[in-house]
Amino acid sequence: MKKELILCGISLLLAGTPAAYGQDSFQQEIPYADPTIVLVDDTYYLTGTASQTPAGFTVLQSDRLEGPWRTGTASDARYLLTQGDAYGTTGFWAPQWIQAGNDSWGLAYTANEQTALAWGDSVTGPFRQEQPQAIDASEKNIDPYLFRDDDGKYYLYHVRFGKGNYIWVAEFDLQSGTIKPGTLHRCLDNTEPWENTPAYPSDPIMEGPTVVKLDDVYYLFYSANHFMNVDYAVGYATSSSPCGPWTKYAGNPIISRHTVGENGSGHGDLFQGKDGRLYYVYHVHASGDEVSPRRTRIVPLHLSKRADGIYDISVKGGEVIIPRRQPAAADGCAETIDI
Question: Using 50, 70 and 90 to split pLDDT, how confident is the model at 262?
Fold first, then answer.
C-alpha cells in the first residue's frame, strides 16, 4: 500500500525504514526521482519527480552538490509549478529546465502521460500556461528533453508508447510549443541484453533522454529496463546529427548497480558543475529491498577522447555524491515522502 508521510519541522523515525538507512540518513537524503540540476549565478537548483500536495514540482537550491540543499530564501518559490497553473491533474513527472533568455525560463514536464511546456521569468518560476495544454495530445508521450543546437534550432526528445517505451525526436517550435510536422522519428531500438533483463520482466523500456553536444558530436543518454528493475541503468549513443542515426557505446551501461553500487540507478540529466566538469544526476532505489522512495545521486563523468574524435564516457563508483537537504526542523516547510 502506498502511503504519504507529511513532514513539517519535525523529525520522525519511519516504521519499515530499511535498516541500512538510519533516521538521520533517511530524513536528509533527497527523495527526487527523475532529477535534474541547473547551475545559475553560482547556485545549483534541483527538482524532480516527487509526491506532494498540491501536485506539481518543488525546488531545492544549494551552493554545493553535497548540500545542504534548502528551499531558498523567502523571496524564492518553493513550488516551481502546481496543479491548476498549467496542464495536468496527476502524474507530474520528469521536469527539465530550458533557458530561452535572461528573463525567460521554460519547464518541460510530464502530466497525465503527456508532455507539456510552461513558462516563468526565473529559474524558480512559478511556471504557468495561459491556456493549459499538452505538446502533442494525439497519443501518450512522456519524459521531455528540449535541446538547443548551435544553429538555434530546438529538438524535443521524448518517449512514446507502442509495444514498449521508445525515445523519439522531433524539431520543436519553441514559440508555439509544438512539434514541427514531418520531423518526428524514433531514435533507438531495444537491442542489447542489458536493456531488458529478466530481473523484472516488462515490455522494452527506453526512457529518460538527455542530450549534449561535444566537439560536434551528439551524445544521447538514456535509461533502459523498468524503473522497478534492479538493473535499471544508463547508457549513451552518439551521432553526427541531432536526429541520428545513433551508434550505441560498446561499453554500456555506464551507470548501473554494478558501477555505482545501488539498485535502479538511472533516469537523470547532465549538467556542468562549478568546476567545469560534466556531472550526471540520477535516482536509485530506496534500498536493496525497496524501490520507493527513490533517492537522488550525482556522479562526475570521465571523458577520454578516441582517435575518431568520440569520447568514451565512464563513471567511478567511489565518486558518487549523495546530496542531502537541510533537516526538516531547519526548513519549517511541509514535504511529502512516499513510504
Answer: very high
